Amino acid sequence: MADLTIHRGTHQIGGGCTEISAGGHRILIDFGANLPGTDGDAQTKDREMVQKVFGSRQDGAVLFTHYHGDHYGLFKKVPPGVPMYIGPLAKNILRILVPYIDRDAPEKGSAIVEQMRTYEPGKWMTPVPGIRVLPLYVDHSALDAYMFCIQAAGKTILFTGDFRNHGIAGQVERMERMVQKYVPKPVDLLVTEGTMLSRTGEVGDTLVRSEEDLGQRAEMLFQTHKYNFVLVSSTNLDSIMEFYHNTPKGMHFVCDLYQARILLTAMRDMQEERGFKEYRASKTHPTIRVLGKGDSRWAELREIRESMKYPVYCKAITKEELERDGFVVLARKNTHPDTYVSPFDKLREEFLDKDGQGQIIYSMWKGYLEEEHADKDLLRFIGGHPYETLHTSGHAYVETIANLIKTVDPKWILPMHTERADEFASILAFTLWKDRVKVLHDGQALDLDEL
Questions:
Q1: Are residues 318 and 413 in the same domain?
Q2: pTM for this one?
Q3: Closest among 246, 241, 253 to 331, alpha carbons compared
Q4: Which one of 49, 97, 256, 337 has the fewest CB atoms closer than 10 angstroms to its CB?
């Protein structure tokens, strides 16, 4: 007996977990938390999710597709003895990210991250008996994201995870060539994300089309103001590299020590191990300027830099240099405004309204500023000031999904990570394959033997 069950994620974005079982063994793909601010109203709350997946059995292996919280966020609740797997760069980023987000958490996750095993792109693995998995590196707003080709009970399943083809790693039809090279035919089941199916109107409105377009637009915006505050996720590295490379000559590219450690870790892997020239140091800005002079974490930053074949230099920046030359700073919200004044708060107060030369550039999902998912800390940072939206999606556009379907020609298609699963077959781009679409509900098992 073999089946596939989406425990959560058939009709929602984020918080997903998919189980594939065969011969009494199982793997779990992702074990994500609900999106920030949504758990209270969710059909399945996080605590219920833990009980659903591990309440009656504490076995299997967990494979994380990438490091976004809605895919790995419940990792602390995985029972001891259940192995967890993640990409090698993703693990290194979690080593920096988890201690930061755990500062006020009673349950710490760093030791658990260290226990995570890593898989290698393009190489088959057998995490449990009878189930083989081939991780395939894909383009996403999180670096080191993967889709999985899975073979179980004589069936081949392609599980996309979150993906796209309009970022740095998605250039020159890389995904199509990778799938054609590595994925064995026939593909019995394609499990695809569909995040953008409910957000198509955002493209060209609040979203630019690609990371390259984002960089070109950023360059023009930066030339209009001397003091630029960019609100961007610290792990959205493709966008950050575009902001870095398009900072005007003579102006400083600035971040704090936490961001610098993530940035150098990404640059080390992406340029040296994977050959992406977009992650090389900028000739215009060979030195990244860093807030936090005298901070003890400089030693950790130096350790990363010294491990690089092609070092990227970092140097503390002074207030005088910021004021004289102008800057592009990667800013973050302050989650403890009552007890802590962040360096970004200080810069905002000093420079945002200075002689009309300051501006905020918002590079995140627009929903975080709207009523349903409003992030009070982001809104506090913006403080009623006008802002420019400059963001591109981390997810596949409709035509990208259609192109993947055409490339792999699956017998069946199962949408998830979407709010429009029930409409999938009726979307114009997918009508050619409408008779192949299966729609599940959370917890409903799909018998793989019947595919």
A1: no
A2: 0.96
A3: 253
A4: 337
